[in-house]
Design a protein that fits this description.
Strand content: over 45%
Largest sheet: 11 strands, mixed
Structural class: mainly beta
């Protein structure tokens, strides 16, 4: 079983246990068990919220919102939750897609698509830490263990990737999109 780290960032975007802080305050992400140095394989040097959906969509038959985050339009994750769940203190834990009607995530590493699966040891933990309407700022924490969809489809050895306690900071228009009632 192979494992890759697919999310990381700076204090303004994400925070992660499997990384170390550089002198510049950035988070450098390395695969578990790898040596911590500048030459280590890294998928996301810095991650930011790319966009929050502002269109009508559903998850489990209920209005939903998606948060796209990552390094670029080529390396990203897309997290979708029901709009009714968007409130301070909301927390969901889903193992092996058991709560697929309430939360969904997929991540594109630029080479592979990682997803949650009902048939594999995957998980998602998502928590909204704060929701400040006055300052238009939300903070959330996401951890996930996902599987490479291409390798599963071909019945190859499982390859997992993880996001470990990534801190999402959502501001401005993205905050408005997150909190919009539809």
């Amino acid at each position: 079983m192979n494992k890759k780290v697919i999310g990381a960032g700076v204090v303004l975007s994400f925070l992660f246990v499997v990384g170390v802080f550089s002198e510049k305050g950035e988070t450098v992400v390395v695969p578990k068990g790898a040596a911590v140095n500048e030459d280590s394989a890294q998928l996301f040097q810095k991650s930011e919220v790319i966009r929050v959906s502002d269109f009508e969509q559903t998850l489990g038959g209920k209005p939903a919102v998606s948060i796209a985050f990552g390094e670029s339009d080529a390396k990203w994750c897309d997290l979708t939750v029901q709009r009714a769940s968007v409130s301070q203190g909301y927390k969901i834990i889903s193992e092996q897609s058991e709560r697929y009607e309430e939360i969904s995530i997929s991540c594109n590493s630029g080479e592979s698509l990682y997803v949650s699966s009902a048939n594999h040891k995957t998980s998602i933990i998502f928590e909204i830490l704060s929701l400040d309407n006055q300052n238009k700022k939300a903070e959330a924490l996401i951890s996930a263990n996902l599987i490479n969809s291409k390798r599963v489809a071909k019945n190859q050895t499982d390859e997992f990737a993880e996001i470990n306690k990534a801190r999402l900071v959502i501001t401005g228009q993205n905050f408005d999109n997150l909190t919009k009632q539809m």
